[in-house]
Amino acid sequence: MNLSLHPHMYKPCRGCGLEDIVNKNIKTPMIQEINTIALEEALRYLEQTLENGESKALLLHQKSVILWKFGKLEEALEVSKKSLELEPSNADAWRNKALILNHMSRYEEAVESSKKALALDFSQSRTWIVRGFSLHQLGRYEEAVESYARAIELNPAGSDGRRAWNNRGAALDNLKKHDEALESYDEAIMIYPFDIYAWNNKGVALGALQKHEEATKCFKKALEIEPTYATDWKNLGLAYKALKDDLHAEEALNKARELGLD
Predict the structure, then answer these.
(1) Which CATH class is domain 210-262?
(2) Helix (H, G, I), strand (E, B) or coil at 70
(3) Contact at 8 Å (CB) between 30 and 13?
(4) Rounded to an integer, what distance in angstroms lies between the CA atom of residue 224 and that of residue 247?
(5) Of 29, 67, 79, 83, whose CB neighbour count within 10 A is largest?
(6) What are the pLDDT digits (tens) for 188-202?
(7) Where in the chain are the domains?
(8) In Å, what is the CA distance from 84 to each residue of 45, 61, 171, 217?
C-alpha cells in the first residue's frame, strides 16, 4: 500500500505579513491570489525607505521576503544574493535564501545556505527545520531526523515545535521506524490538534504497521478539518482497499481524482 507522507515546508502565504510594512488599507493576513497592487506598494515603500538612509542590505532582505511571499522565486533569489553580498553575516537572510531554494527544489544549495545560517546562529529552531526539510527531500533521512531533533530541543512547542515533530515523524517513517514516528505525530497533534499533515502522516504510519482500521480514523480526522485534502482522500481509499472495503475505497479514490490527484 503506497501511502503518501507530508512533511511541513514553510510556505509563502501571498500577502501574509505585508501589513507591517505597507499601507494599512491593504487587507491581510492572507491574499489568495497574487495582489499586484499590494506587491507594488510594498516594493515602493521599501524604495522610499532606502532613500531615507535605511540599511540597503536589510531592505534587500525584506524585498526578497516580499517577492518570495508573492511567489516570484527567481527574483527573490537574485535579491537575496545581493543582500548577502552586502551583509554576509545576516543569519536570517541565509535562512530566507534556503527557504527560497527549497521552493525551487534546489535542495543541495538550500542545505548549504542553512549551514551558513547555522554557523552564524545555531539557536534558531526554524533554521534547523528548514535544513531538515532539504535533507529530507534529498533522501538523507538520518540527517533530517537529527536536524529536526535539534529544532525540538530549542523549541519543543508552538508552531515551529509541531512542524519539527511532524517532520521528524515523516523522516522516521521513511526509515521504517514507524513506532517512533507515531510518537512524533502524537506530539505534533498534542500541540495543534488541527494539523492535517500530522493526522495524515499518523495514518500512514499506522498503515505501515498493518493497523488499517486505526489509519482510516486518522485520515477521516484530517478530512474533517480539511475536506479538500486530496492526498488524504487517496490515503483513505488505499486504507479501505487494505481492509477489502472496495465500495468505500472507490468512493475515496474518486474524491481524490475529483480534487486533481491521479
Answers:
(1) mainly alpha
(2) coil
(3) yes
(4) 20
(5) 83
(6) 999 999 999 999 999
(7) 18-209, 210-262
(8) 21, 8, 31, 47
